Amino acid sequence: MIGFPQKMYLNRTIAKHLPDDISLKAVSALPGDRARVFADAGYAVRTIGLALKALISELIEFKPDIVFTDYPAYPAWCAKLYSLLRLHHVPVVAWLLGDWWTEHHALVSTARFRRKLFSPLNMFGWSTGLKFADRILPVSNWLKRIVDHRFPNKTTTVLPRGIDPEAWVVEENSQYAFERPAVGIVQDNYVFPKVKGLLEFSSVVRKMRDINFYIAGGGTYTPLVEKEYSGLPNAHMIGRLSYPEGVRRFYRSTDVYVLASGLESASNTVLEASLCERPVVASRVGGVPERVLEAQTGWTVPNGEINTWIGRIGELVEDENLRRRIGSNGRRFVLDNFSWNIMASRLASIFREELALGSHSYSPDRIQ
Fold first, then answer.
1. Which fold does the domain 165-337 belong to in CATH?
2. How confident is residue 123, by pLDDT bands cut at 50, 70 and 90?
3. What pTM, to 2 d.p., does this model score?
């Protein structure tokens, strides 16, 4: 398992839930402190060279039968080279966590010159890495359609990012001193297409003056969000919260959870809020509708339809029994469909399917 440095926790979570008969090793795509390459592209060539050498060494030492990665740039290249060294095809399974192409272009458009200079190299690495993969696992059906269009001959299987229910279903001893009725929003502000939805949502907040909106999160574009919502007495900027404790407490301190985003392959905050039994009203974008059952766990609303937003939020705020029913449905829906136990079992089946294809030699009692 080769993971993006900032998301190694996902690999550790998957490892915890995979069946015991699967032996695995999780390594970072950028060993040590080499992740600084993402902050300053001037280190890119040297860093990637060091990472390639380190990853090849890890593969030679561990001798995996399959390689799984959520960062399919040069790690997929390493797996390809390792197959050649081993004189045996080692399948590569690439987990795609988002619409990388849209997010990449959005980030590069506002980046400094040195990062822009290396952006074609980054694009080439990702595109080639995905071509090397034997199977791509997009996190939603919406993202699968994008992948199928870009790689029409590639095998793709949807594997949503799971969630550990334990952190969200526990009793909450205290709540924040939010003024009710309270609507909560938790969003990071790093990718402008996502932030755009939150900026547009200010029109809803302006019209719902009797409802308090609490907005948590941080990131590059937070000053834009703060400027957009400044002067609105019912809009309260909270900043970053501890995870998961502070975020869980935040959900429990609100009546309704809102996701106002312009781009989402699969939002986990929707799942978290649902596990905390909060009804959800979310932007009808990307893979979000796959995580909200209309009129059962919440609603999705097209961005820009201000009156629809106001109607859905207002209906929930005014009807406590409706909030309880929708919230309870949401918890059951997430527990039945998105727990890590379910997702890890699916991933294990995918590993076995890949190893069973063709002439891959492996030991049935040790899938690595």
1. Rossmann fold (3.40.50)
2. confident
3. 0.88
